[in-house]
Amino acid sequence: MMSRNFTPEQALIDKLPFGDATALEELSRRYGYSLYSYCLAKLNSHEDAKRIVRNIFISLWENRDRLPADFSLSIHLYTEVRKAVVQCINSKLKTSVNIPAIEKQIIPGFSIGALQQARQPVNTQKSLYPFSASKKRNYEEQWWNRFIPAISMKGLKHGLKSMLNFW
Amino acid sequence: MTTEVLKAKTGRYLRGESVPAETRQIQTWLSCIVDNKEALPQKEKEKIENEIVAEIQAYIEYTQIDPKPRYWWQKITALF
């Protein structure tokens, strides 16, 4: 999600103790949707996801006077959202709200097979280009490579050799 | 796993009384994101983002109309 301005995060955090509501608004625009989508993936409930994100930012606003000197917003949000998700499940189980939905949607996530997916390495897509992703940008900037993206020097040499053999 | 077991495990986790295996299990579950859902269109994302921001703004505006009393030491520490 695009942010509205390019103010550094630390500058926005520094404005919070002075009661700058626009700084909190900007931070919530930067992180709100990603926190929401995480909660939604875990809880399968739009209302709960929105409530958790809102409460996290409200608690940040409430505690703006007590932020430590080495405060890291991303670590704070990461910790808070994980805690809030577990709290939400626990409170639902305590009040017996939506038990069938929890059995259907959340409990299968605790199976051994589902948890082993967290330990799997991230699948890397096989690249079309014969070199690393860091060099790919430079490669694409050269206009002629846009027309012949899959031809490598090795392939070109092989093609010329086979043409010469044919003649 | 049954709901009763999950309730007991999450309860112990929140109280900080869970055994290391339970902690690992819950933390692995929290870290495991299987993204099977299709990405929402940009307009939907913006709508959700605006809803969240509007709720936060409403709360902040309410607290500015009816502010909680701030002690003198809170005002001073805020300067640092």
In short:
The complex is a heterodimer of chains A (167) and B (80). Chain A has helices at residues 9-15, 21-43, 46-62, 73-95, 99-105, 112-116, 133-141, 143-147, 153-166.
The total count of strands of chain B amounts to 0
Radius of gyration of chain B: 21 Å
Q: What's the gyration radius of chain A in Å?
A: 25 Å
Largest sheet of chain A: none
**Assembly status:** heterodimer
Order of SSEs of chain B, N→C?
HHHH
Q: Which residues of chain B form runs of ≥5 with pLDDT under 50?
A: none
Shape of chain A: flat
The amount of helix of chain B comes to: over 70%
Low-confidence stretches of chain A: none
Question: β content of chain A, as a range?
Answer: under 5%
The share of residues in extended strands of chain B comes to under 5%
> Quick one: which chains have the greatest interface?
A-B, 45 and 40 residues
Task: Give the termini separation of chain A.
Answer: 58 Å
Structural class of chain B: mainly alpha
Could you give a short account of the major beta sheet of chain B? none
Shape of chain B: flat
What is the average per-residue confidence, as pLDDT of chain B, rounded to a whole number? 83
**What's the total helix number of chain B?**
4
Following the backbone from N to C, one meets helices and strands of chain A in this order, namely HHHHHHHHH
| Mean pLDDT, all residues of chain A | 80
Description:
Chain A is an all-alpha fold and 167 residues long. Chain A has helices spanning 9-15, 21-43, 46-62, 73-95, 99-105, 112-116, 133-141, 143-147, 153-166. Chain A is flat, with a radius of gyration of 25 Å. In chain A, helix 1 (9-15) packs across helix 2, helix 2 (21-43) packs antiparallel against helix 3 (46-62) and helix 3 crosses helix 4 (73-95). Chain B is mostly helical. In chain B, 9% of the residues are buried. The chains are: A mainly alpha (167), B mainly alpha (80). At the A-B interface, helix 2, helix 3, helix 4 and helix 5 of A face helix 1, helix 2, helix 3 and helix 4 of B.
